[in-house]
Amino acid sequence: MTAEHKESAVEAQATATRDIYIPSERASVSGGGRPHVVAKDFSIYYGDFQAVKKVNADILSQYVTAIIGPSGCGKSTFLRAINRMNDLIPSCHTTGMLQFDGEDVYGKLTDEVLLRKKIGMVFQKPNPFPKSIFDNIAYGPRLHGMTDRKQLQAIVEKSLRKAALWDEVSDRLDRNALGLSGGQQQRLCVARTLAVEPEILLLDEPTSALDPKATAKIEDLIQELRGSYTIMIVTHNMQQASRVSDYTMFFYEGELVEYAETAQLFTNPKDRMTEDYITGRFS
Amino acid sequence: MYIKMKLFRNILLGAAVLGVMSAGEASAAGKIVMDGSTTVGPIAKSFAAYFTKTTGTEVTVSESGSGNGAKSIINGTCDIANMSRGMKDKEVAAAKAKGVSPVEHIVALDGLAVVVNPGNRVTALSKSQIRDIYSGKITNWSKVGGPNAQIVKIQRESNSGTQDTFKSLVMGKQYPISKRAESQASNGAVKNRVSTTPAAIGFIGLGFVDSSVKPLLVEGVAPSAETVKNGTYPISRPLFMYTNGQPTGVVKQFIDLNKTSNGMRMISELGFVNK
Amino acid sequence: MNLGTRKILDNSFTAVGMGSIVVMALALLVVLTPIVYNGVGSVFFTGTIEHRTMLYKEFGRGDAKAIETQTATADRYRAEAYRMLSDFEQEMEGMSLEASRQYRSKYAPVRAAMSSLLGPLPGDPVPMLTRFQYGQTRWEKAEEKLHNILYEKKWDYSDPTVMAKAFDVPRAEEFAGTKLAPLFSYAERHLADMMQPQFTVYWGFFTDRSLDAHIFGGIWPEIQGTFFLAIGAMLFAFPLGVIAAVYFTEYAKEGFFTSILRSANSTLAGVPSIVFGLFGLAFFINTMKVSESKSVLAGALTLAIMILPTIIRAAEEAILSVPKTYKEASLGLGSTKWNTIVTVILPAALPGIITGGIISLGRAAGETAPIIFTAAVSVGSAIGIADVFSSPTPALSWNIYNLASEHEMASEIRHVQYGMVLSLVSIVLLLNLSAILLRAKISQKLKG
Fold first, then answer.
1. Between chains, do A88 and C326 touch, taking CB under 8 Å as contact?
2. Are residues C238 and C312 in the same domain?
3. Does the CB of A80 have a partner CB in chain C at under 8 Å?
4. CB contact under 8 A, C334 and A121
5. Predicted pLDDT of residue C159
6. Are C65 and C119 members of one domain?
7. Domain count, chain C
8. Residue A12: its pLDDT value, please?
9. Shared domain check, C244 and C183
10. Is residue C138 located within the same domain as residue C227?
C-alpha cells in the first residue's frame, strides 16, 4: 500500500458516519491550470435523445479531473465526445462548442485522427491487441511513421516504465499481450496510449473490470502521470474519484450539476443533488 | 500481417511447384480444341491421342453433346465440332449471322443399334414396331413377342445428335416420342440403364455395343460394320466433324486422319464403320 | 411439467439426437468404404506382366531384365495355349462345311476372349489403339476374362412370359472331342503362369498422364487441372470477397441499398451451380471472350463467382466477431479507419476468413457443373502454367462423371474412376483439414 492509500484509509475511518472520504489537500501543478478543454453549451444527442445537456466547463491542463454520476447520466458520453469516439455511433451528433487548445473539436476542418493522437483514451475493459507486448506499444508510433527499430525500442521501454509495467514484462516483450493479467493488460493499454505522446489522457472507468490490487496500481499510476498529462477519469467509484482527482464533475441526467475542486465537492457540495449522491442516497 | 504473408508465400510456393512440375509438358506445336457429340467422342479421343503422339500438337476433347458442339463452333470457341447429326438450318443460319461458315466432314459411319436387356427374348423388331413402342402405342413386350412386362423406354436428351437421328430415321415428324420415355445424357448411360433394367429398350451408337446389352435385328438386319456400310441396316448415319471454313494446317491434318489407313483402323477397332 | 415427464423428454431427445448422428456416421461409412477400398485399388493391386510391359513400353519405367525373364516364362505357357488355338483352326479346315461353320461361330468369342486376356494373338496385326495392344493388366480383370473363356453366358428363354435368367455353360463341353477341348482346363490351371501376377504399387497413378482415354496410365492432368481451377478461383474470389465483406461491415450505411445487396448475396449463395456454369459460358466465354475456347481462366472465374457469396458471408461473420474494443483501441490511438481495418481487424478476423476461404476452395475443387461448359474436357494433357489463359483442362470432378457415364469402356476401368473419386475426396478433406489446423494455429497466436 502506498502512503496515499494509508492516508485515505485513515480518513475513511474518520468520516465513516458520513460514508464519504475527505480528500487530502493536493499540491498545485506548476505550469498547469490553463483551460485545455472548453465546453460551451455543449450538448450530445443520440438521434432525438439528448444525452448530454448544454455543458459549460473548462478542463484544466495537467490536473486530474474526475467525472462521477449515476449510470446513464451521460458521463461516459461526455468523455468519449472529447476525442470523438462517439463518431462510431452513426446516430450521434452534437450542438454547442467543444474546444481543445482553442480549436473546435467538431469543426468541419478538424482531423479527428490527429485529434485522437493528441487525446489518448483507455477503456473500461482492457483491450490490448492480439499481438506481442512490443507490437502493442509500438502500434501507435508505427502508425505515425516510426520505423526505426532502435527508436521504437526506446519508446516501448519509456512508455512501459511510465506505466510502471517495465519491470514485470521487460523479459517477455515478444509474448502475446493477451497472456498478461487483467491489471497488467490495463497498464499496457495506458502505456500504449502514452507511446503516442498525447496531451490528454481520457480514462473511461479504467478499473471497473479489475480486482482491488490491480486497481490500486492503476490509481498509483494516475498519480505518477498527474502533472505531465491532462487526465480525465470517469468512475463509478466515489472513493476513487476522491483519491485520485483534483477536480470533480458531477453529472445527473445529462446535466453537469456541479463542478468543483474535489475536496470541496466532497466535503461541502453546493447542490443538494450532489450531496445526496455522494452520501449514497441514490446511485 | 506476418501470418498473412506466410500464408500468401505458401500459396505462391504451391502454385510455383505445380507450375514447374507441369512446365515440361507445356504445349509445343499449337493446339486443337474439340467439342460435341458423345457418340463421336471415342473416335475424337483416339485420334487426339494418336495425333498428339505423332505430331506433338495438343488436342483437347469435350463430350457435351452434338447441340453444344454446334453452339461452340458457332460461337467460335472450338476448332472442331463433333456431331452425330448434320447441322440444322437454324444452326447454319445462326453461324452465318456470326460470320462463321461451318464446313462438314464425314469421318465415319455409324449404325444406331436398338438394344434391349439380354434377358429379353425379343431378338428383332420392325421399324414400325420400334416407332409404336417409342410413341407409346405399344407398352408391353408381350405385344411384340416378348415376356409380359411393361416396356421401359430410354431416350437421349434433346441436345443429342443420336436422339435427332433416331427421331428422323425411325419416328418421323408425325410420331412424337412419348413423354413417358426416360432421358439419359450419353450413350454410356443408356447402355448402363438397359443392361441393368430387364424391360428396357434403348438406342446407342454401334461403337458402344458390348455383351451387356443385346442389339436387335431391325427389319431383319443385324447392325454390323458390313450392313451399315452397304446400307442394308436401316438406322445408320454418318458422323461429322465441322470446321469453320475449309480447314488448314494442323486442323486439316487432323480432319484428314480418317482417310489415312491408321485412322481407318482406329475407327474400325472402335466398332465404327469407315465410310 | 413434473420431473418424470421432463426426464422422459430429455432422455428421448438424447436418444433421437444420438440416433441421427449414428445414421449419419453409417451413411458416411457406406459411402466412404467402397470409395476408399476401390480407390486404394487403383494404386495397390495385383498387376500382371502386361501391366509391367505396358509401363516399360509407354512410360519407360521398370526393371527391363525382370520383365524380360517374366515375359519369357509367360510366353512359354502362352505358346502352349496359342498352339491349341492354331491346332483347332487347322482341325476346322478339315471338317465338313456344316460342322466347320457351326464351330467357327462358337470359336469367335473364345478367340476374342483369349485376345482380351493375353493381348493380340500371334498372327493378328498390331492394333492401332493402345487399349488393344496389351492384355489384362490387373489380376482380377484377368480372372474375369478367364471366366469369359471358360463359360458361355446363355439365357433361358424357355418361359415366354417372363424375362430370361442368365446361366453359364462350360465351353469345354461344347468343344468336347476337338483339339480345343484341353485349352480350357489348361487356361484355368496356368492363368497365373501366363499372366505372372505380382503385387504392384503404382504410384504413377497420381503422376502419369492418361493413356488412350484413361484405359491405362494415371490421372495427373486431372489432379493438376483441379488444383489450377480451385486455386485460380481463390485468387479471384478471396481478395474480392474480403473486400466486399469489409465494405459490408465497415463502410456500407444500413439502408435499402445495403439490404438489397445483402439479400442478393444470400440468394447467390443458394443458386444451383449449373446456373453459374451457364452464366460462365454466356458471360466469360461468349460475351467477354476471356479466352478463345474453354479455358482454366474462364472456369476459375466461373467458380470464383460461385464461391464469392460464401467467402463474403464467412468473412463478414469473421469481421463482425472481432471485438469492437480492438477497433476502439486502434482509433483511440489516432489510427485511420483503413489502417485499423488492415492492421487490427483483418488480422484478428483471419482465422474465420481463412476457414471460409478454404472450405470454398474445397467446394471449387469438387464442383462439376460450373466447369462443364467453361473449362473441363474429357481428354487433354496436363497444361503448363502459361497455358491457363487459353487452354481447357481435364479436372477430377468432370472426369469422374465422364468415366461413370459417357466413357465407351466405363465398366472396364472402374478402378480409375474410383481412384479419381478417392483423390478428389482426399484433396477436399486435406484442404478442410489444413483449414482447421491453420485456424487453430492462428487462433493460438492471437490468444497468446
1. no
2. yes
3. no
4. no
5. 85
6. yes
7. 2
8. 44
9. no
10. no
Say if C359 falls within a structural domain: yes
Read off the C-alpha cell for A239. 472513493
Question: Do A169 and A133 form a contact (C-beta atoms < 8 A)?
Answer: yes
Residue contact A143–C334, C-beta within 8 A: yes
- Does the pLDDT at position A10 exceed 60? no
Which of A85, A114, A128 shows the shortest C-beta gap to C332?
A: A85
Task: Locate A85 and state its grid cell.
Answer: 469516439
Cell of B199: 424391360
Nearest C-alpha in B relative to C369: B64
Q: B16 CA to chain C: closest CA distance, Å?
A: 9
For residue range A160-179, list pLDDT tens digits in order. Answer: 998 889 999 999 899 999 99
How would DSSP label each residue in C241-297? HHHHHHIIIIIPPSSHHHHHHHHHHHHHHTS-HHHHHHHHIIIIIIIS-SSSSS-HH
Q: Is B70 within 8 Å of B202 (Cβ atoms)?
A: no
Same domain, C354 and C407: yes
Domain that holds residue C61: 45-150+176-202
The Cα of C377 is separated from the nearest Cα of chain B by a number of Å equal to 4
Cell numbers linked to C11: 432422455
Taking only the tens place, the pLDDT of each residue in C262-283 is 899 989 988 999 999 999 999 9
Q: Does residue C379 form part of some domain?
A: yes
Inter-chain CB proximity C334 and A192 less than 8 Å: no
C254 to chain B, closest Cα gap in Å: 30
Q: Nearest CB to C447: which of A116, A178, A192?
A: A178
Q: What is the CATH number of the domain that holds C409?
A: 1.10.3720.10
DSSP A107: -
pTM of the model: 0.85
Do residue C257 and residue C189 come from a single domain?
no
**Chain C environment of A113 (Cβ under 8 Å):** 334-336
In angstroms, the separation between the Cα of residue C55 and the nearest Cα of chain A is 55
